[in-house]
Design brief:
By secondary structure, this protein is mainly α. The chain is about 70% helix and about 0% strand. It has helices spanning about 1-15, 20-25, 30-55, 65-75, 95-110, 125-145, 150-185, 190-195, 210-230, 240-265, 285, 290-320, 325-355.
């Protein structure tokens, strides 16, 4: 953060901006940068899911995809959206509250992820707890989204989708609890640093904790199925314009931040793939005042996360189709027992290796 602050300070000083205003605006800089990153992530993932994958499936004229694209394009140019809404009478501000409860927690969750050894937007010793607090607020936002609609069938469908969503979160909570217990820390950056950076892939937690990694990935896949139902065209009545765009940004941002968390827990986070940094072998590190390593760490984390999420989206759209009954059976009959078994194995390994908890 110090390196970014010095660059930010010099850049605005050259533009003739007052030093006090620069210091005041710095506190809003990570927030604005996170929103821009979320928009970029949403655009990339949406193009991949709604543009590239249907091309290989020979569904260029898919009505669902064309509706999403046309709605988002119109929302980008029509800021206020349609004046008519299908929300309940008297709930004029409910859609604004829904956007706050859905969008803001995702921004905070992005800030809790350590992108490099020096760039951590929100430094907290209990980052894992704050992360799951954001998930809980996000769930309440999804609940209010369905309750503010003037349609009882949408109320029931929203509650049903949230129950499915929570059933997918239970295995992830068990896996994350096991990682926290084994690393003896609630700080996400310390969990990343507990994995060896000199051994490359061999030093990552994905090898001893492959079962937990597989549980996390399958749960992420099921969540992406549920999001297709929650954020479908039929369930977004009353949202248009920029509000619709923000909902889709929050949807893909939530999937990506779960992918970031999975990479930090099991795949070394921002640690390099080969056990050494490529920027240390080239002279560009001296040109950037020894900050090329931290830039490379950000690139490694984003590359791993995009790769994981691309694989999940590809499997969802091409190889595997599930319904609600299968999701319940997979989560409660398979993933939850495996998550509990994985937690017990990690507890025993922690006791034997570390001499106690």
């Amino acid at each position: 953060m110090d390196i970014i602050y010095q660059f930010y300070l010099k850049f605005l000083e050259q533009m003739g901006i007052d030093n006090g205003l620069i210091i005041l605006s710095w506190y809003f800089f990570p927030f604005c940068l996170t929103i821009l990153a979320m928009v970029f992530v949403a655009v990339v993932l949406m193009v991949f899911e709604q543009g590239i994958i249907p091309y290989f499936r020979n569904k260029k004229n898919d009505i669902e995809h064309s509706c999403k694209f046309s709605s988002l394009i119109s929302g980008a140019f029509n800021f206020w959206g349609d004046k008519t809404t299908l929300c309940k009478p008297g709930s004029f501000f409910m859609d604004k509250v829904v956007l706050l409860l859905i969008f803001v927690p995702v921004v905070i969750m992005f800030g809790l992820i350590p992108y490099s050894n020096k760039y951590i937007p929100i430094i907290s010793e209990v980052g894992v707890i704050l992360f799951w607090t954001g998930v809980v607020v996000f769930v309440f936002g999804l609940l209010f989204k369905g309750l503010c609609a003037n349609n009882k069938f949408e109320h029931v469908a929203t509650v049903r989708s949230i129950l499915l969503f929570c059933s997918c979160l239970v295995p992830i909570v068990l896996v994350v609890s096991g990682c926290v217990m084994f690393a003896s820390s609630l700080n996400i950056n310390e969990i990343v640093l507990a994995q060896s950076s000199s051994g490359g892939v061999v030093g990552w937690s994905v090898i001893p904790g492959f079962i937990g990694f597989l549980i996390f990935v399958v749960s992420l896949l099921l969540i992406s199925y549920i999001f297709d139902e929650i954020f479908s065209v039929e369930n977004l009545n009353g949202f248009s314009g920029i509000k619709l765009c923000l909902l889709f940004v929050a949807k893909y941002g939530f999937l990506f931040v779960l992918s970031l968390l999975c990479i930090c827990l099991f795949c070394g986070g921002y640690l390099p793939l080969f056990g050494f940094y490529l920027s240390e072998l080239i002279p560009i590190n001296f040109v950037l005042n020894n900050s090329a390593v931290y830039i490379e760490q950000i690139i490694w984390l984003i590359f791993k996360s995009f790769l994981l999420l691309f694989i999940v989206i590809w499997i969802k759209n091409i190889l595997w189709q599930v319904n609600s009954e299968k999701i319940i059976n997979i989560t409660w009959r398979l993933l939850v027992p495996l998550g509990m078994l994985n937690f017990l194995v990690l507890c025993e390994a922690k006791y034997l290796v570390g001499g106690g908890f």
